[in-house]
Amino acid sequence: MKKKLITLTLIVALSATTTAFAAPIPRESVPLNATEAQVQITENLISDILDEVQVDNLGYTLAAGYANTRIRKAVIANQTDGNGYGVLSPIAQNAIRVMRDMQLRPDAYTQAEEELKILLADLIADVQNGKDYMEAVKDAYEIIYQSVDASFNYDEQFSLDTCYRDISTVGMEKFTATRKLLMNAK
Length: 186
Description:
Blueprint: H1 2-17, H2 36-54, H3 60-76, H4 85-104, H5 106-119, H6 121-128, H7 133-148, H8 154-158, H9 172-185
Helix pairs in contact: 2-3, 2-4, 3-4, 4-5, 5-9, 6-7, 7-9
């Protein structure tokens, strides 16, 4: 009896000292049209998967598959507050993709952030002074594209069907870092 009590006490003590880590969805990875409520629902469904991505136990493909399955089951079971798979899955996919990319290429993100602090300094200041975040993101994307191709016109290119757009390639780390900087400036 005494041995069982000691064992139970040790189990409870060890359980109390172990804290569960639930990785949040990086807000800079969230699709621009997603609401905070949708992000929270997705985060509640996949935070343990994000934990595994962060500690390098899961790669993108496996993590994305697990997340999609879990989201699909939650939607079918009406556990997503009326939000569908087509809304929640992109939130999960972006989060996993960004977390995995940040893990594999941390220097690229650090470098992008440092470069963008300079390139977007005026825009960051405008956001600090109350400029609309969504408008600032659009302006920042145009500045980034113009840093690669000076003749780039955002409105002109994005008014075209995707198959006719002529847009220079820019790494996703620049857009992710941009959104992070502008969110921090709010």
